[in-house]
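Please, structure for the following, as tokens.
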Amino acid sequence: MGYARANSLSGVFTPKQLKLAEEVKKQPDDQRAYLLARAGYSDASIKGSSTELYTSKGFHNALVSLGVTPEKILSPSLAALDATQTATYKGQIFASDLPDHNIRLKAADQLADILGIKKQVIEQRTINVNVDGSEVAHLFDQT
């Protein structure tokens, strides 16, 4: 497998990882399957767990080589945590010191998702199993 190295700061990545990083940088809102296909990944990779491809060290190195650093990704959301309301009156925009909670909450939600600290709802199911006492007695019999 061929490896490319952009510079000593970005680390090692494959040509496909670089192509995927380029596609993500150009069209970050496209669906993963389209991005992977344009980067040259096989149907099996596309249908498989794309999470592994997106979380790989090589992919992250390729992003850094293109200038897509964690700081750049996080900075708009971090700035939005301090968003304030604005108002328009007779065509003029006026800023206020009042917090814009809608924007702040969206930014907090995005950051929690990016940083992996968002709570995920796990589906819980209850299964009742009825057994006769004699059927399980041997499990507790230590003799």
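The chain has eight helices and four strands. Residues 69-119 form one domain.
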